[in-house]
Write a structure and sequence with these properties.
single chain; mainly beta; outer membrane lipoprotein receptor (LolB), chain A; eleven-stranded antiparallel beta sheet; calcium ion binding; signal; Ependymin
Length: 216
């Protein structure tokens, strides 16, 4: 009886331990759905993450039927070159902006543990851990959900006070490795693009990594 109680106690202690901040595997390909809460718009991306090369890429899918006037983008973030390319595939116009510091995909060291739960039903569950950049003196501006075992990204939430917009991003079909290396190749129109400030679309995609405030 005492042995059983001891085992149960140890299991409860192990489960109650707060997870440590984690970082995702170095090479990932995935499908991302981004929802802009203020404009009630959805964008669907094929995406890739390369920690080794310090770069991200997002190629917008043309889904959901005809959308007159809708613009579709290919965004490439190359941190080592300190450049973001935002290529409008409809107009063939490319904007170039500074990428800023590289932040690995995952939880910043001072991220705040918010809770853990299971996604799915019996026999097909994934244990997820939720983090934020909330502190004792201010509310969160970023929330990230990652799988507990491998730290695969699942969902992010980001609020921008500057743009007064909130973005929800859900991540699906994650695989390790880069399935489409050409997604990192800037279109010809980007090679001579002038330097501008990134649009909110570009900033929001960068916000998927983790909190910019805590990531510095």
């Amino acid at each position: 009886m005492y042995k059983i109680l001891a085992v149960l106690t140890l299991a409860a202690v192990a489960y109650s331990q707060i997870p440590q901040p984690c970082f995702s595997p170095p090479l990932l390909s995935f499908y991302a759905v981004q929802y802009n809460q203020e404009f009630t718009t959805f964008r669907n991306f094929d995406a890739a993450y390369d920690n080794q090369g310090e770069r991200f890429a997002f190629y917008e899918r043309e889904e959901g039927g005809p959308a007159p006037g809708r613009q579709y983008f290919h965004i490439i973030v190359l941190h080592r070159q300190n450049v973001v390319y935002e290529y409008n595939r409809n107009s063939n116009v490319c904007r170039r902006a500074q990428a800023g510091p590289f932040r690995p995909f995952g939880v910043p060291p001072n991220g705040r543990f918010e809770g853990e739960y299971y996604i799915g039903g019996p026999g097909e569950t994934v244990e997820a851990v939720e983090w934020s950049d909330r502190s004792d003196v201010r509310r969160e501006e970023w929330i990230g959900v990652f799988s507990r075992v491998n730290c695969y990204p699942i969902r992010t939430w980001e609020h921008s006070g500057i743009f007064n917009q909130t973005i929800h991003t859900h991540i699906y079909n994650v695989v390790q490795g880069i399935t489409n290396p050409s997604i990192f190749e800037p279109p010809q129109a980007c090679l001579n693009a002038t330097l501008n400030e990134p649009t909110f679309l570009g900033k929001s995609l960068q916000g998927m990594y983790h909190s910019k405030r805590n990531g510095h």
